[in-house]
Design brief:
The protein has three domains: 2-94, no CATH class; 108-252, no CATH class; 259-319, no CATH class. The radius of gyration is 27 Å and the shape is extended. By secondary structure, it is mainly α. It has helices at 2-13, 19-36, 43-53, 64-76, 83-91, 98-112, 122-136, 139-151, 185-200, 242-249, 259-284, 289-300, 308-319; strands at residues 163-165, 202-206, 209-212, 216-219, 224-227. The strands form two sheets. Strands 1-2-3 form a three-stranded antiparallel β-sheet. It starts with a helix and ends with a helix.
Length: 320
């Protein structure tokens, strides 16, 4: 058990975003209950959560730390998992492909250091440097930054890297945490700082250095987002390295797509449904065994080309 735990911790150390610090203690608890409660019926759920904890954070569709802590607590008291938790875990029981896992893990390590250069071209980097220089050298920007420093004690809001960040952007600009509350100093500051960052196209400040928005490619559990800053004169052909972007996105695509493939899959689905209808009709008429398979093939017009195995495969596809 100790060897398995050490292997998992070693895997965590290779991932970005301080994963040992955030996930390590929960993994230790999971390994402990795998030994102490090995016969608990929730062990398959525990294993699914363990595997997700070792995935790059970008691929997580839900909070596996919170779910994991709950499951561990239930197993420890020999309790029974709620049906909704069972259902939840069933929905995430399919894991990303290994190729996608590796590509995303490497991307996270770059993003952790603020390096998006792998997916943007030299001309785009030049655009960014030009904008960053124009902001940092702007007299009005420096005056407004000095004013902001007199309004708040900024040391309260800096992280360990001396960075203050604006609120993160979410889909359709919905942000559940941005209600203005004048009596709450932290929220009051965040709103003021968000407005400052919006005016100067920043994602934050590092000391006195403006952190200008970058053309960036961001991965999420649901897809690949390309963020083009509002100030950016975007050239989709010259600004992005699409080969590098597809190295990140393509491994996550479950099946190939395209007009020809889509038509083919539609025809295949129709064939599968027809197979299932014929099978049901023949079953009700009393046909069994080889005779039923032969009649299905006749109904499909595939007597010479389809094997019994292909009929079974089509019936399975009809049910999916």
């Amino acid at each position: 058990m100790k060897a398995d735990l050490q292997r998992d911790l070693d895997a965590l150390r290779k991932l970005a975003y301080r994963r040992v610090e955030k996930v390590g203690s929960l993994l230790e608890e999971i390994h402990a209950i795998r030994s102490s409660h090995s016969n608990h019926p929730a062990q398959p759920v525990v294993e699914i959560i363990r595997r997700w904890l070792l995935m790059p954070f970008t691929l997580w569709p839900v909070d596996f730390v919170g779910i994991g802590k709950h499951v561990v607590a239930v197993v420890r008291r020999d309790g029974v998992l709620q049906p909704e938790i069972q259902f939840l875990v069933e929905q995430v029981s399919e894991f990303p492909q290994v190729e996608a896992e590796r590509a995303v893990a490497a991307h996270e390590l770059r993003v952790e250091k603020g390096k998006y250069e792998a997916v943007v071209t030299p001309s785009a980097r030049l655009k960014f440097r030009e904008k960053a220089k124009s902001v940092s050298g702007n007299r009005m920007f420096r005056e407004e930054w000095r004013t902001l420093q007199t309004l708040f004690d900024l040391a309260k809001f800096r992280d360990k890297k001396r960075i203050i960040r604006r609120r993160m952007v979410q889909e359709r600009n919905f942000r559940p945490d941005w209600e203005f509350q004048v009596e709450d100093e932290k929220r009051r500051f965040q709103t003021v700082f968000d407005a400052f960052c919006h005016r100067w196209h920043l994602y934050g400040m590092e000391g006195n250095k403006p952190l200008v928005l970058k053309l960036s490619v961001n991965l999420t559990a649901h897809g690949t987002m390309i963020v083009v800053p509002a100030f950016w004169s975007f050239d989709c052909h010259r600004d992005l390295d699409w080969n590098e972007i597809m190295k990140l996105h393509r491994p996550r695509v479950v099946q190939r797509q395209g007009p020809v493939l889509s038509v083919s899959r539609i025809k295949r689905k129709r064939l599968a449904k027809k197979t299932e209808r014929l099978w049901d009709q023949l079953t009700r008429s009393g046909f069994k065994g080889d005779e039923r398979y032969r009649k299905v093939k006749e109904g499909l017009g595939k007597v010479q080309t389809f094997t019994d195995r292909e009929i079974r495969r089509l019936r399975k596809e009809a049910a999916s």
